[in-house]
Amino acid sequence: MCGIVAYIGPREAYPVILKGLKRLEYRGYDSSGVALLNGDLRVYKKKGKVNELEESLIGKDVHAHAGIGHTRWATHGEPSDRNAHPHQSANGKLAMIHNGIIENYAQLKTELQKKGYVFKSDTDTEVLLNFIEDIHENNQCGLEEAVRIALKRVVGAYVIVLLDAANPDTIIAARKGSPLVIGVGKGEHFLASDASPIIEYTKEVVYVNDYELAILKADELVLKNLGNEKITPFVQKLDLELAAIEKGGYDHFMLKEIFEQPDTIFDCLRGRLDVSNATITMAGVQNNIEHLKLANRIIMVACGTSWHAGLIAEYVFEELCRIPVEVEYASEFRYRNPVIHKGDVIFAISQSGETADTIVAIERAKEQGAFIFGVVNVVGSSIARISNAGAYTHAGPEIGVASTKAFTAQLVVLTMIALKIAKEKNTISEERYVHLLNELHEAPEKVKEILLLNDKIQELAEKYKDAKDALYLGRGYNFPVALEGALKLKEISYIHAEGYAAAEMKHGPIALVDENLPVVFVATKDSYHEKIISNIQEIKARKGKVVAVISEGDETIPQLSEDIMVVPQADELVAPMLSVIPLQLFAYHIGVAKGYDVDKPRNLAKSVTVE
Ligand code: M6R
Questions:
Q1: Phi, psi at residue 556, to the nearest 5°?
Q2: Structural domains for the chain
Q3: What positions carry a catalytic annotation?
Q4: Has this prediction a pTM greater than 0.85?
Q5: Which element (helix H / strand E) includes 480?
């Protein structure tokens, strides 16, 4: 949450920062701002999206070679000009941007108020900044030392970046719990929440670790820990092209990412799945196979869409590997006192690899001796680094706030892991193993076929866009797909939608059904097919409008449905990778038809780095 960008070097800082903020806007978009240093320190900020900041700065003096910028997702204080970042310290000499939450800000604020500090905003950021200023002035120490002293007292998560009017050739940044990447150019440095604002200029990057301080000049990068010891920066080469983070002719990133799925699934399988030799190669699994196959229990820990992937994986792992699986919301797991045994394996599933709740959940489990296996999309992210082992999903950058391609890639990776463990444990027959490898192999082509439904689904979206509520139902492997379909609709179109296990419906939600309620059934051909047909009948009998995702060749459900979306036949274990795609398109087109900004739905941010 919140995107930060900074630049120091020979270029004009403002255009670099502005472009970077636009790339990071998916992380938060309720207000934005820049601080530019050219002799004096100028801070400009504005409620609303980055475009509004840009417009407000037309004609203003934005000339500078050092600057910081921020796009905000509000935590402390409503979205407004005065709560927008950067904040300026009381004496006006320091400017700071912050991503994260300072949990003990109230206590620090009281201390500062007693010393006469008056606050202009409601933010925890301004408190931390003035705390730093106070130490800087009263201890008569340099800013770097003041930051170090301040951070030792801070409880919470942060990336902070500071500009100091007295030291125009230096930017100071620090990280704990929120992501921070440094781009190393020739005689220039960039800083950002992720690499997207940087790759246009350099592919050499340094990922800053927790409790590290970066002191940047145009031609020098010094990394230190909070104990003031120097750390040698580990410079990595980014494997990312600019095209991957641009819309490439699509109206929205979400649509581009939905349409990328044949490729992302293929990329996820590439080099791993070998159908002709009936093998799966995954070093992270192979090197830790004893841990995985001897697991007494697997716990999937995740949030949101990734949690839905975990739910599907529960069905897959239990069926193939015969290991008991639990699926936990990271946000609940971290605050409970869960019973964890040495033989437990925790799967941390996350697109961003930076979700605060998931990070803390796995840190707690790791402390108690669990083995952590990360299933993560963003290479080098915090979850990837904390995990004992893992497998990347290789879906490429996902920028649309609604997760689409990352979800299908998670399903592919989790299924391959389960197949590999099952093979090692001998809990799967050779015939079924080979069959499922083939099913995975065929998935990209089947997804291509489903995407041909786009125009038809756009028409359906027009028909259903004015619904007030919607119910999504599924059974077995398709039950979590129903949850995911409902989540997509909610977050993009703001229509209230509930996902439910189809058979549970009669224990309550069926009371909602009337002739106005669209009920979306995820009802592809599987071992529950006859049962779900009965559930459809139950809805029909109460005049609900049935919209069904069905398999090719199904002759029964079309007769019971108002509308259908037909996907190719597939094994029930692979079906969720296919049946979710019409639901992604349905949500997308309804959101667009209602005139919403589907890439930046209200109140949301792409990576939830606060608890
Ligand atoms: O980056 P993560 O996969 O850890 O993110 C988890 C959720 O925040 C995320 O899936 C969220 O629910 C999406 N907006 C869903 O589309």
A1: -85, -55
A2: 3-243 (3.60.20.10), 247-446 (3.40.50.10490), 452-597 (3.40.50.10490)
A3: 2, 606
A4: no
A5: helix 479-493
